[in-house]
Amino acid sequence: MVAGLGLNYNSSSWGKRRGTRTQSIGVVPKLDSREALALAVRILEYAEGRGLKAYLDSRALKYVEWSPVFNLGRDSVDVVIVVGGDGTILRTLHLLGDSDTPIVTIRYGKRGFLADVPPYDYAIALDRLIEGRYVVHEYMRLEARCRGVEKIPYALNEVSVVTSSKARGKVCRLRVLRYQEGQAERVLSVVGDGVIVATPVGSAAYSLAAGGPLVDPLMRVILVTPLAPISLCSRPLVLPETSTVLVEVSRDSHEVELYVDGVMVALREPGDSVEVLRAPKPARVIRFFHEDFFSRVLERCL
């Protein structure tokens, strides 16, 4: 056990679990970090030395020299290795879209809550990847749908509907409905800054900061957390994964903005709505070491 990290390198149960043997990797570094870019090159060199086909994200070519390269989301590799923090991981998953390609997360950011491998242990991770000594966790994601927006990336953390920056200081008015088995039910009315619809993984992100519950990431539920509501009766909800959540913008509301994992994707007017449901494809994340979720929250987020 490594002090302060909660990573168990000697777990016999994890050592016996086997994934598919890897033949090719694509490395996606955090582009504005010289340290992450340098580590990406070391990972590529080590992987190539171990007989893997090692590709660099083509967007990184302006910062480092490496050949061959791959285009994230278009070119196929067995595993994508992300070197960075949570933002880099989330954007990588957005670009992967419907792909079943699993990712390895190497922590090189301020928080790195989603990341698994410390930067100095990349060689151990690659060895286990080559040997098939890992497990793949599938984390539920959310799909947002709204009129006039064709392609919205799946959310690993949350879909949020918040007051427009143009209406800063003013509240929005939202109605939240739950559809299940063909039946509609109003579950929440929000007069405040907005509402967050989160996954279990996202329960440790924006939703937690807004007062939502902490949920084990391997559970399959949908969280609905009001954002700074005026009414004390507007409380967070936990719904079954089979629910479809409809967020309606009241006609007497100000305009709102739709965000997916912190990225604005659309502006919604009064009378518009946003539909949020479980995405058809989960995020597939490779884990090498056993780490307790709640210990991770305490050590990295508090």
Query: What is the average of the pLDDT values?
Result: 90
Radius of gyration, CA atoms, in whole angstroms: 20 Å
CATH architecture verdict of the largest domain: 3-Layer(aba) Sandwich
Q: Give the SSE order as H and E letters.
A: HEHEEEHEHEEEEEEHEEEEEEEH
Cα(first) to Cα(last) distance is 21 Å
CATH topology of the largest domain: Rossmann fold
What oligomeric state do the depicted chains represent? single chain
Sequence stretches where pLDDT stays below 50 over 5 or more residues: 1-17
What do we call the CATH homologous superfamily of the largest domain? Probable inorganic polyphosphate/atp-NAD kinase, domain 1
Walkthrough of the structure:
The chain has 302 residues and is an alpha+beta fold. The protein has 2 domains: 12-140 and 282-301, 3-Layer(aba) Sandwich (Rossmann fold); 142-278, Sandwich (Tumour Suppressor Smad4). The protein contains 6 helices and 18 strands. The strands form 4 sheets. The protein has a 6-stranded antiparallel beta sheet with strand order 13-12-11-8-15-16, with no helix packed on it. Strands 3-2-1-4-5 form a 5-stranded parallel beta sheet, with helices on both faces. The longest helix is centred in the N-terminal third of the chain and has 16 residues, at 34-49. The radius of gyration is 20 Å and the shape is elongated. The two termini are 21 Å apart. Mean pLDDT is 90; it is low at 1-17.
Q: Could you list some keywords that capture this structure?
A:
about 300 residues, alpha+beta, Rossmann fold, Tumour Suppressor Smad4, 5-stranded parallel β-sheet, about 20% helix
